[in-house]
Design goal:
This protein is 36% helix and 37% strand. By secondary structure, the protein is α+β, with helices and mostly antiparallel strands. The protein is flat. The relative contact order is 0.20.
C-alpha cells in the first residue's frame, strides 16, 4: 500500500516538474523571439520614418568624336557561289576605300552574312486560279557596322560608299567613344545638386539629415543634336561632291532622386 502511494506521489512530482520545464522553455522562446524582433525592428515592418526626398539633374553638352553608320552589299544569281563572289569582290573594294580614308580594320565589323533563295510566283496559264513558286535566284547579303573616328572624313566616306555599289546605307549617328565616363560625370553633377538641395531644405526645416534611405538613377539616352543629313551633288566630269554632314553636339542627361532620413 505504501509503495502505491509513493508511486502516485512520484508521478505527480514528475508531472509538475515536466509542466514547469515546459513553462520555462516557452518563456525562453517568447523572450528570444521578442529580442530578435527588437533587434530587427525594420525588417518587414511598416514603421514610418520622417524623411525628405530631393532630386538632382546633371547635363553635359559634348561634341561627338565618333560617327557610326551601317550598310550592306547584296548580289543575286542562280548560282549561289557566283552571288557570293560578287559580294566578296565588292566588299574588298569597299574595305580598300575605307582604309584609304584612314578607317582602321578594327572599326569595320560584319554584323550579318545572309544567303537565302528568292522565289517568284508564276501563274499557270491553263488554270486561272493556279500557279507555283519558281526559284528566281539566290540572294547574298553582307551587312557592316562602320565606326568613323576622323569626323572630318565622314562626308567623303559616305560619298565613296555610295559609288561602290553599297546598298541600305542607314543609321548615321554621332556618339562619344567614352560615353560611359560622360554619363558618370553627369550623374556626379546630379548627385552634387541633390545633396546641396537636401542641405538647404534641412536648414529651412530646422532638422538634421540622417542616412540615405533610397537612391534612384534615371539616366537618359543621349540627345543627338547632330543633323543626320547626307547631301551630295555632282561637279564637273561626274565627280561627286563630299556629302555635307554636320556633327552638332550631344546632350547627356542624368536625373537622380535621393531620400534622406531626417532627425
Amino acid at each position: 500500500m505504501d509503495n502505491k502511494i509513493d508511486m502516485l506521489l512520484s508521478n505527480k512530482c514528475l508531472k509538475k516538474i515536466l509542466i514547469a520545464l515546459a513553462v520555462i522553455i516557452s518563456l525562453f522562446v517568447v523572450v528570444k523571439i521578442a529580442k530578435d524582433m527588437k533587434e530587427f525592428k525594420y525588417i518587414g515592418d511598416n514603421a514610418v520614418r520622417n524623411s525628405i526626398t530631393v532630386a538632382g539633374k546633371g547635363e553635359l553638352m559634348v561634341k561627338p568624336d565618333i560617327a557610326n553608320i551601317s550598310f550592306s552589299i547584296t548580289a543575286e544569281d542562280m548560282d549561289v557561289s557566283k552571288a557570293s563572289d560578287v559580294v566578296n569582290k565588292n566588299m574588298a573594294e569597299v574595305i580598300a576605300s575605307l582604309k584609304a580614308n584612314g578607317v582602321s580594320e578594327k572599326d569595320i565589323k560584319t554584323t550579318d552574312y545572309n544567303i537565302y533563295p528568292r522565289y517568284d510566283y508564276v501563274k499557270d496559264v491553263s488554270m486561272y486560279y493556279s500557279g507555283k513558286q519558281v526559284l528566281a535566284g539566290y540572294s547574298v547579303t553582307q551587312s557592316i557596322d562602320l565606326k568613323i573616328r576622323d569626323l572630318s572624313k565622314t562626308g567623303k566616306i559616305i560619298t565613296d560608299l555610295g559609288s561602290l555599289k553599297v546598298t541600305n546605307m542607314s543609321g548615321l549617328t554621332f556618339t562619344n567613344d567614352k560615353y560611359d565616363d560622360l554619363v558618370k560625370q553627369a550623374r556626379e553633377d546630379a548627385i552634387k545638386q541633390a545633396r546641396a538641395e537636401a542641405k538647404k531644405l534641412a536648414k529651412s526645416l530646422d532638422v538634421d539629415l540622417g542616412d540615405i534611405i533610397s537612391f534612384s538613377d534615371n539616366n537618359n539616352s543621349p540627345i543627338y543634336y547632330a543633323r543626320d543629313m547626307m547631301k551630295s551633288s555632282t561637279l564637273g566630269m561626274g565627280v561627286p561632291e563630299a556629302a555635307v554632314v554636320p556633327t552638332g553636339e550631344n546632350k547627356i542627361v542624368s536625373n537622380v532622386s535621393i531620400t534622406y532620413e531626417i532627425k
